[in-house]
UniProtKB/TrEMBL annotation:
The keyword Oxidoreductase applies. Keywords: NADP, Oxidoreductase. PROSITE patterns: ADH_SHORT. SUPFAM superfamilies: NAD(P)-binding Rossmann-fold domains (SSF51735). The lineage of its organism: Eukaryota, Fungi, Fungi incertae sedis, Zoopagomycota, Zoopagomycotina. This is NAD(P)-binding protein. InterPro entries: NAD(P)-bd_dom_sf, Sc_DH/Rdtase_CS, SDR_fam. Pfam families: adh_short (PF00106).
Length: 196
């Protein structure tokens, strides 16, 4: 954390009510962090919204107890860029990025709709990488930062009817391990979490 910063700035993807990202936002806020909760649809984070505090570009930012909500679709590069630029314009930096957004894909492999499978990979594999590629350059300039990728025990132990989901999480795990080594020289810590 920058010694000149008043609080740690955290960006969390996939923060719909009832999920891991939502809970993480509340926990970070309780520890005094400035939190940016994001989701494809802002209305899924309704309980995190407070009073309207203003607008920047095409985003309406709402805040409550240090939690701000923004629209961010991890499969849309323009959405990622706009959200990250908004946070950097307001805060000057991002200390922690939590890649939590993900989607399930449950179907027998022989009946798997390949378009649905591709969408799962877009969300679970390429989406987090795209968010990192947009966020990390600012961390590299500061020489510090933390990336947390939310994997899954399913990425270690595939089960019937979840082959695509499991393989997408395995892919996330593999490139997270590579990235950890690549980013270490820049003062960036990379963490992989396996919810079970």
């Amino acid at each position: 954390m920058d010694s000149n910063s008043k609080s740690t700035v955290v960006l969390v993807t996939g923060c719909s009510q009832g999920g891991i990202g939502h809970g993480l936002c509340c926990e970070f806020a309780q520890h005094g962090c400035t939190v940016y909760a994001t989701a494809r649809r802002v209305e899924t984070m309704e309980d995190l919204k407070g009073m309207e505090s203003g607008a920047l570009r095409f985003y309406t930012i709402r805040t409550s107890l240090g939690i701000h909500t923004l629209q961010l679709d991890v499969t849309d590069s323009a959405s990622i860029k706009a959200a990250v630029e908004t946070i950097l314009a307001l805060e000057g930096h991002i200390d922690i990025l939590v890649n939590n957004a993900g989607t399930f894909c449950v179907m027998p492999m022989l009946e798997q709709d390949l378009n649905i499978a591709r969408q799962a990979y877009e969300t679970n594999v390429w989406g987090p990488l795209a968010v990192i590629q947009t966020t990390v350059p600012s961390m590299m300039k500061r020489g510090s930062g933390t990336i947390v990728n939310i994997g899954s025990i399913a990425g270690l132990n595939a089960s019937p009817w979840a082959g695509i989901y499991s393989s997408s999480k395995s892919a996330l795990h593999a490139w997270t391990h590579s990235m950890r080594v690549e980013l270490r020289p820049y003062g960036i810590t990379t963490v992989l979490v396996y919810p079970g």
